[in-house]
Amino acid sequence: MKQFQSSQSVFDLFVVGGGINGVGIANDAAGRGLSVFLCEKDDLASHTSSASSKLIHGGLRYLEHKEFRLVREALAEREVLLAKAPHIIKPMRFIMPHRPHLRPAWLIRTGLFFYDHLGKRKKLSGSNNVFFKEDSPLQPAITRGFEYSDCTVDDARLVVLNAMQAREKGAQIMTQTRCVSAKREDGLWVINLENTHGQFQIKAKVLVNAAGPWVSQFIREDVQIISPYGIRLIQGSHIIVPKLHDLDKSFIMQNDDGRIVFAIPYLDKFTMIGTTDREYEGDPAKVAITEEEIAYLIKISNEHFKAQLQREDVVSTFAGVRPLCDDESDNPAAITRDYTLSLIQDQADQAPMLAVFGGKLTTYRKLAESAMKQLRPFFKDKMQASWTAKEALPGGENITSIEQLISEVQEKCVGVSECLATRWVNAYGSRVWTMLAHIRKVEDLGYDFGEGLYSHEVDYLIEHEWARHSADILWRRSKLGLSFPADKVAELDHYLSEKIVALDAA
C-alpha cells in the first residue's frame, strides 16, 4: 500500500462522498483554511444529487408536517443561493390548482402566508390567488388556484461548482476513487483508497462520512463500528415528456393520496413530472423507475392538464433514492427531510467521525456550516470564519445580466448560435471565458460530436470538471443526453478514453 503523493502528510479533513453534502462540506472547510481530501467512488453527483426535482425551495408541503425550522432555513437559503449562482439557479413561479375535495383553500392560504413570511424574501415575489380562463392549460373543472415563488436549479452542476471552488481553495478532489477501509490509529484516521491506478493510503485528523445512501453501510462495513442512526431509502422518480403547455411557470399538483407532484418546464422542449415517494430496499446504485410509478405520474398529470399523456409520450425517466434519517414514520412522504449530524468519538483522544444523515439540496450550505460548528473544537484557532454566504460559486462572479453575457459570447465567438451561447452561459456563467480561452470563431472549437458539443468543450470538462465518461458530460455536466445521437455516444466515449490515457501517461 503506497502513500498518497502530496505535500500534505496529514489532512485535516477526509470526506467520503461526492454528492452535494460532501462537496459542500469540503468547500466550506477548504475556505476556512483546513486541508481537505474528498473521494467519490463514481462521478460527482452521480446518484441522489442528480436525481432531484431540480428545485431550490422552502418545501411548502413540509409545513404540514410541522418542519418549521427546516422550512425557515430553506426559505432563507433560496435568496442566498440565487445570489451565489444566478447562471444555474433561476426564479420560478409555481401554480397550485385548487381541487376542493383535497386540501381546503383556507389551509393552503395559511400555508402560503407562512411561506411568504417565515424566511427573508427580497428578490422573490410573494403568493397570490389566481383564476383560470378558457385558455388555461388545466382541465376546465379547475377554475382557481394559488401562485407562489421558488427557484429551479441544475442540481448536478451545483455539485460540480462546489467541488471546483473547493479545489480552488486547496482541496484535493478525487473521483472514480473508492474508500476501501478506514481505521483509527495513533489519534488519526488511516484511510485506504483504490482507483484505476491502484491502491494508496492517506491520513486525516477527522473523517466526514457524507456517503449518502451508503452512510450507514460505510460505518458498518468500512469502519466496522455500529451506526448511531438508521436510514430509510425513499425512491423518488420522474418522467420527462413533451411540454404540456407554453407557460414559463411550474405547476404543483395535489393528489388524493396526500402527496404532491410537480410539473416543471424543462430545457424549453419538455415538462418534467415528479416526484414519487416509495420505500426502496435494493442497491442504491441500481434504482430505476417502475411502471407503476410511471402510470402514477401520468394519471396525476392527466387529471390536471388538458394535454393528455400516454405511456409512449414518456421521452426519458430518472430515479434516485433519498437517504433520510429513520424517524420511524409509517408514511414515506412524511419522513423528515431535515438533516442529522452525528459526531462519533468514543474517547477524547480518538480521531472523530462526523456522519451526515438526511438533508436536502436547498440546505446543503447550512448543513456544511453546522458540520464546521461541530468540528471547530478539533481545530481550535486554525479554523477561520464562515464565508460561503457571500462568495459566489464559480461562474456566478460579476454577472449583471445573463442575456448580456449571451450576447457577448456571440459577439466574441463568431458563428456561435444563440442556442449554443445560451447553453454555455447557463452552464458556465462568467467562467464561459475560461472555457472559450483563445476561441474566436466556431471553427476553432474542433470536432462537433453532435448537438453543439465540440471537442474543445469536452477537453475543458476533462481538465476542469472531472469528466471521464460520456454520461458525466451528457447527463450531469449538461443535459444533452436527451437528444444526443446514439451512434455518437460510443464515439464520445472513445475520444474520452484516449484523452484520459494520454493525460495519465503525461
Quickly name the level 1 CATH class of the largest domain: Alpha Beta
Give the end-to-end Cα distance, rounded to a whole number of Å: 23 Å
Proper CATH architecture of the largest domain: 3-Layer(bba) Sandwich
Q: Provide mean pLDDT, rounded.
A: 93
Q: Low-confidence spans: pLDDT under 50, at least 5 residues?
A: none
Shape descriptor: globular
The CATH superfamily of the largest domain turns out to be FAD/NAD(P)-binding domain
What's the total helix number? Answer: 13
CATH topology of the largest domain: FAD/NAD(P)-binding domain
- Please count the beta strands (DSSP E, at least 2 residues each): 19
Radius of gyration, in Å, reads 23 Å
Largest sheet: 10 strands, mixed
Strand content is 15-25%
SS content category: alpha/beta
Overall number of domains: 3
The helicity comes to: 25-40%
Catalytic activity: a quinone + sn-glycerol 3-phosphate = dihydroxyacetone phosphate + a quinol
Keywords: FAD, Flavoprotein, Oxidoreductase
Protein name: Glycerol-3-phosphate dehydrogenase
Cofactor: FAD
Describe the structure.
- Pfam families: DAO, DAO_C.
- The protein is an alpha/beta fold and 506 residues long.
- The protein has 3 domains: 2-47 and 157-230 and 337-382, 3-Layer(bba) Sandwich (FAD/NAD(P)-binding domain), CATH 3.50.50.60; 89-151 and 232-326, D-Amino Acid Oxidase, subunit A, domain 2 (D-Amino Acid Oxidase, Chain A, domain 2); 402-505, Orthogonal Bundle (Helicase, Ruva Protein, domain 3), CATH 1.10.8.
- 31% of the residues lie in helices and 24% in strands.
- It contains 13 helices and 19 strands.
- It has helices at 20-31, 68-84, 105-117, 155-168, 215-222, 291-304, 364-375, 402-412, 418-428, 432-435, 455-465, 470-477, 486-505, and strands at residues 2-3, 11-16, 36-39, 55-56, 89-97, 128-131, 144-153, 172-174, 178-185, 188-195, 198-209, 231-242, 250-254, 260-266, 270-274, 278-279, 316-325, 339-344, 353-358.
- Strands 4, 5, 6, 7, 12, 13, 14, 15, 16 and 17 form a 10-stranded mixed β-sheet that branches. Strands 1, 2, 3, 8, 9, 10, 11, 18 and 19 form a 9-stranded mixed β-sheet that branches.
- β18 (339-344) and β19 (353-358) form a beta hairpin.
- The radius of gyration is 23 Å and the shape is globular.
